[in-house]
Amino acid sequence: MAYRWTNDLTTKDITPEHLYLNRRQIMTGLAAGAVAGGLASPAIAQDELTPNDYDDITNYCNFYEFGTGKGDPAKHAHQLTTSPWSIEIDGLVDRPGTYSLEQILSEMTIEKRIYRFRCVEAWSMVVPWNGFELADLLDMVGVQTGAKYVGFETALRPDEMPGLRYPVLEWPYVEGLRIDEARHPLTMMATGIYDKPLLGQNGAPLRLVVPWKYGFKSIKSIVRITLTDREPKASWNQANAREYGFYSNVNPQVDHPRWSQSTERRIGGGLFQRRQPTLMFNGYDEVAGLYEGMDLSESF
Ligand code: MTE
């Protein structure tokens, strides 16, 4: 497994953990890194990429397989056996099969990237992820020309996931991306946060991260990846297609039917923090080309 630091978004290095309570030092570090590395996303202000505290990222979670409360995943996800772990990769690929996580990691380049993360419930965080590009994994298995979409599936373990008892969603949790979205260099398979292996509540041992889409696209604890020629099922879209479209791009102009999506509350900012305006594509303007010619109020 190789390590590479290619964070073109912000810093030359992630703020060491012992510094992240000292916000002034973090800001200084980020600004310096941004100047050194150049910003790939000019819409994202440097100070907006100050990572959230590890405690917030690991305690304020959504993972309905462990319960619907924000604190439930942190309480219950330690029950998930994450080693050994394997992923079935099937459908329109040259080398389908069951791949162990070690096997995959031995061929991937692990990177550190700080991404804004925006949830459909209008809260946001900034997370320093470790992981690899999904495109590298797709290249490893060889995507066939007929493949137009990638489907993902989460583990289904009633003995380890107490939330599966409740029919809040159809289980297992599933998600999907169009192949060009899946291949975009911002799309990442995360294995860690703050240089520590992912905890169960954040989707250990392997989860998707798509930073320009609402959080629910970033499916956790993945056991299957399927290349297909038709749009795969996506859990929230299936549950309520009027409220959750397949694309789910962060878009301040398209409101959720029950609330505005134009502003967000940054987690960890304290009670009196002002809401901030939400940016189109969560600030990742470089993905706009993927949707040229599409009406994003129709395909939301
Ligand atoms: N993946 C699975 N399998 N089950 C879930 O309930 N919740 C989604 C997404 N991935 C979810 C999931 C939602 S709604 C969000 S906002 C993000 O995970 C939250 O990721 P985090 O808890 O690591 O911040």
Helical amount: 10-25%
* Sheet having the most strands: 8 strands, mixed
CATH superfamily: Oxidoreductase, molybdopterin-binding domain
Shape: globular
Low-confidence stretches: 6-40
CATH architecture: Alpha-Beta Complex
| Range of strand content | 15-25%
In the CATH scheme, the class would be Alpha Beta
Instruction: Identify every distinct bound molecule in the structure, by name, code or SMILES.
Output: ligand MTE
What would you say this structure looks like, in words?
This protein is α+β, with helices and mostly antiparallel strands and 300 residues long. It has a single domain (17-291), classed as Sulfite Oxidase, Chain A, domain 2 (Alpha-Beta Complex), CATH 3.90.420.10. It is built from 7 helices and 13 strands. The protein has helices at 23-37, 54-59, 72-76, 101-107, 134-141, 179-183, 235-239, and strands at 2-4, 86-91, 97-100, 109-118, 123-133, 149-154, 174-178, 188-193, 196-197, 207-209, 222-228, 263-266, 276-277. Strands 1, 4, 5, 8, 9, 10, 12 and 13 form an 8-stranded mixed β-sheet that branches. A hairpin with a 4-residue loop joins strand 4 (109-118) and strand 5. The longest helix is centred in the first third of the chain and has 15 residues, at 23-37. The chain is globular, with a radius of gyration of 18 Å. The chain starts with a strand and ends in a 23-residue tail after the last strand. 41% of the residues are buried. Mean pLDDT is 89; it is low at 6-40. Bound molecules: ligand MTE. Ligand MTE is lined by residues 61-65, 119, 154, 173, 202-203, 215-216, 218-221.
